[in-house]
Each structure stands twice: as structure tokens, then as C-alpha cells.
Amino acid sequence: MDETLAAQMAQLQARVEALEGAAPENRVSLVVFSGDLDKALAAFIIATGAAAMGMETMLFFTFWGTSLLRDPAKSVGGKDAMSTMFGAMLPKGAPKATLSKMNFGGMGTAMMRTLMKSKNVASLPQLIELAKEMEVKICICDLSMSLMGFKREEMIDYPGLQYCGVATFLEQAANSKVQLFI
Amino acid sequence: MDETLAAQMAQLQARVEALEGAAPENRVSLVVFSGDLDKALAAFIIATGAAAMGMETMLFFTFWGTSLLRDPAKSVGGKDAMSTMFGAMLPKGAPKATLSKMNFGGMGTAMMRTLMKSKNVASLPQLIELAKEMEVKICICDLSMSLMGFKREEMIDYPGLQYCGVATFLEQAANSKVQLFI
Amino acid sequence: MDETLAAQMAQLQARVEALEGAAPENRVSLVVFSGDLDKALAAFIIATGAAAMGMETMLFFTFWGTSLLRDPAKSVGGKDAMSTMFGAMLPKGAPKATLSKMNFGGMGTAMMRTLMKSKNVASLPQLIELAKEMEVKICICDLSMSLMGFKREEMIDYPGLQYCGVATFLEQAANSKVQLFI
Questions:
Q1: Number of domains in chain B
Q2: H or E segment at C176?
Q3: How far is C15 from chain A (nearest CA, A)?
């Protein structure tokens, strides 16, 4: 075996290995910061679309977005005054989310829901169900849970639901082909 | 020829080819979700800036953003009641877009337009013209067109304007160096 | 030395070099477009989180975001009428930023600040201090400074603070693993 070539080969193999290790995977990582209906729809349409294309998809819910994942059927007690107040002011779950624009005291949002139904567009709760089936991963921001005063027992049932911090999101995002802040 | 080395070479070539195939191209893909003047300006300034740097640039207009591409000079009939109402409530094209903050019933937006003129900053319609010249690609979300009740005949003339779904956006985005949700 | 193999090796080395040159660095580039407290918190939590993970992090402040970096303790004169008006209407620096939702004339924002304190979450000014220590880079959009009528002398003291255009942001973003528009 040619020793010069063999040495060059070994060196090149190491460089290729490093490149392979650093290359992002076929993933999509989205921050869902907004709790608005329109942006939540966008997030879930992108997420389920990506999952349908075979991309591993992860949604990181933070700040107002956290509120979208409360289960309207669950209620928990034992909250302090501030948490109770926050909890009452924020929409309780996906069915209660409203448009960021042209809400008009709920009328615009109702119109949009009617429109979506008539055009056979999946509703937000239906999109969440679809996301479940397509194994879209959901991670809820620890810090936001604490700030909003939400308890884990009041969140929706979602397979593999995780609570994590910004470091987990960043690790995944750095390893993804697509990252968006919604 | 050294057979061991030749075999290693062939294997390494295949790995390098795979890396080359997966590496993102020199592209920028932006989702324009917002219909606000300020965010639309940001989208077009980034898009034309990227095009000026030789990056292939694509704007995917969805939800409120779709409204920015209506042509104020065009009008279409034959819409159902809901579409007519939506059409009337949303700003008709880029010249009518308003600020997301400090609009003050249009006064803030007028101030910003005056300010932009005095500082020789291109207006939104001018930036759209510039994007045309620089061959920024525009894709309008099919689903949003349907939801907003817009017809293709009322959209602006733009070379190569396409209507597409989220899958097309994701394919391009996964192949881009920069992706942003605006 | 086997000449065929040597030639193949040279060619492959060039391809690997090209891949290495194009691979994004371990960086995060964020556009801070919003001037809202909640989004600014998200931006700085992501930025300081990324810096803590050893990623080189850069924040590009534009439009409303620019206002977050004004120093409340500094005041400058010699502005034209429009700049003075804009300056008075926009929140003067991070301590004055308000929530994008549920501000309720400042009450919601005050509630959030109290909540953050009680949960030991760093305030926005504290996060900016942390970003300094962690060497997060800050770049302020030239064009926005001019549009908002801000002068450099009224901005906060921040080590290595730069003023730049969209091209600088795009160059960094194209070379980053994570890019977000906040």
C-alpha cells in the first residue's frame, strides 16, 4: 500500500467524518411563542406538512404559546393569586385561541373558523390531533410554565410531551435544516 | 492500482457526494405571514439585500401577508358574501399596509412614509419593483388564497409568480442557508 | 505513488475543502425586530442560552427593536421635529419595554415584572448585562437608526457594539446554524 496516499486517505476520512457529524439532520424545529390562532395554525400546518415529508419535527412552546396546550377539560387548584389571575386572562387551550388581527371581540375569529370549516381546512384542535398521529414532538418551555403559573396536570395529553429549557431547543435547532420563530 | 486504497477512495467519494447533495444552497427562504407595513418592509429589505449578495431568494406569502400582493387597480366580482367582507376589511395591497405599532388610525403610518421618503428609503411598492428586477421569487400560499377568498386575477403582476403549498416552501427552506418567519 | 489514485485524492480533497468552507459555524444569528418586552426576553434568553452552550451569538436590532437599546440615562439634543416626536413615543430603553399582549395600560407588564422577580427570572436589563458578560455580539441596523431618528450617543454602552446593514446580518446568518426573526 502506498503510504503517502494511505496517510492522506486517513486524514480525509477524518475530515469527512467531522463534516458528517456537523451536518444538520432532516429536521424542522419551531418556536411557538405566539398564542394567537392564526400563528398557531401556521405552526401546526408547517409542522404536520414537514412530518408528512418525512422530516422529524419538533415544536417548542414558550410564553403565550404555552397557553395553547392547556386542556379546557382539566382544572387544577392550589394556585397563588397571580397564577390564578394569569390563568383566567389567557385563552384556555387551542379551542379558545383568537386571531392576532381583526378579532373584533371574537367576531372575526368566529368568521375565520366558519370559513375554515366551509373550505375543509382542519381546525387547530384537529391539527393538534394530526400532529399526534404524525409523531410531531412537543416540548413545553419550563420557564414559561413557571411564569404563567401553569401546572403540568392542566396541559393536554400528548404522547411523549416533554418539558424542557432553551438549551434543549437550541441543541435540536442547531441540528435542524429549518428553524423558525413563530 | 492499490485495491484497498481504491476501495476506500470509492467509499469516501460516495460519502462526499452525499454531503454535497445534502448541503444547503446559497439561498434565503422567507415566510411572509404578517400583512403589516413594518414587517413587509423588513421582508423585502432582507430579500433584496440577499439577492444583491447573489443569494437565490424566495418569499412565501401566507395568511395576512397574502393581502400585500393584491393589486389595488384590479377588482374581481363573483365572490361570496364572506370573501367580499374579508376582502373589504383587509388592506388592498402594499400601498395600503399599515404599521403593526403606533398606527394611530393611520397617522403613525403616514408619518413613517414621510420619514422614509425624507431619508430616501424605498417605499414598499418600490421595494416590490426592486425585488422583481432582482429576480426574487414569490410564491403565494394556495390555502391562504382560498381562506381569504382572494382570486388570482386580483393579485399583482409579478414575473414567475407562483401559487404553492407548504410542502414547496419546506423543500426550498430545507435547502436554504437562511430561513425566517416574518 | 499510484497516479490515478493520487489524482482522485487531490480532487476529493478539493471537494472536502469546499464543503468545509460552506458548512455553517457553531453560531446563532437573531433579528430582534420587535420592541416588545416579551419578545425581547425571548431573544435574550435564547442568545444567552446559546452563548452558554459555546455558540457564537449575534443579535441584529432593527425597527422597533432598536428602541430597546436606548440608554434611559442619556439624552441628546439637536433632533428635527419628527425624530423628537418618534423618540418621545417609543419606549426609552429596555426598562420601559411593555408586553405585546395584555399590557392593560402597563398593569399587565407590571404584573409580569413582579412575577419574574418572584420566580427569580432575570429582568431584561439584567439579561442585557448577562449578554455583555457572555460576549453576545450586538449589531444595530443603520437604516433603522436613521428612520427612528436615534443618535449613536443615546444608545447603551455595550462592548463591541456595532452599527451595520442587512448585508452584514445576512453574511453572518448564512454562516450560522440557527437563525430566527423575533
A1: 1
A2: strand C176-181
A3: 10
CA-CA-CA-CA torsion sign (C141, C146, C150, C154): positive
CB-based contact C85 B182, cutoff 8 Å: no
Among candidates A61, A127, A167, which has minimal Cα distance to C50?
A167
Chain A residues close to C45, C-beta within 8 Å: 143, 166
Residue C9 falls inside a structural domain: no
Evaluate whether residue C12 is within a structural domain.
no
Q: Which chain B residue has its CA at the smallest distance from C180's CA? A: B180
Burial A122-144 (b: 16+ CB within 10 A, else e): bebeebbebbbeeebbbbbbebb
pTM: 0.96
Best CA proximity match to B80, nearest among C157, A149, A118, A76? A118
Kindly state whether C6 is in contact with chain B, defined as any CB-CB distance less than 8 angstroms. no
**Is C55 within a domain?**
yes
The CA distance from A35 to A68, in Å, is 6
Are C59 and C47 contacting, i.e. CB atoms less than 8 angstroms apart?
yes
Closest alpha carbon within chain C to B16: C16
Inside any domain, residue B43: yes
Query: B88 Cβ partners below 8 Å, 6+ apart?
Result: none
| Interface contact flag, A23 B23, Cβ < 8 Å | yes
DSSP 8-state code for residue C123:
P
Closest Cα partner for A33 from C93, B98, B60, C45? C45
- When CB atoms are compared, the residue of B4, B147, B165 closest to A121 is B147
Whether chain B has a CB inside 8 Å of the CB on C139: the answer is no
Is pLDDT of B85 > 90?
no
Residue of C19, C53, C178 with shortest CB distance to A179: C178
Q: Is A91 exposed, middle or buried (0-12, 13-18, 19+ CB in 10 A)?
A: middle
pLDDT in tens, C141-181: 999 999 999 999 999 999 999 999 999 999 999 999 999 99
Give the distance from CA A52 to its chain's centroid: 16
pLDDT tens, position by position, C93-135 = 999 999 998 888 888 899 899 989 999 999 999 999 999 999 9
* Residues in chain C closer than 8 A to A4 (CB atoms): 1
What sign results for the dihedral spanned by CA atoms A163, A168, A174, A175?
negative
The residues in B 29-88 lying below 8 A from C, measured between CB atoms, are 38-39, 41-42, 45-46, 49-50, 52-53, 55
- Could you tell me the CATH number of the domain that includes residue C158? 3.40.1260.10
Does residue B1 register a pLDDT over 80?
no
CB B179 within 8 A of CB A178: yes
Q: Which of A53, A102, A121 has its CB closest to that of B170?
A: A53
CB B148 within 8 A of CB B67: yes
- Best of B4, B16, B119, B127 to disrupt the C interface by mutation (most C CBs within 10 Å)? B16
Cα nearest neighbour of A21 on chain C: C23
* Residues spanned by the domain of C175: 27-181
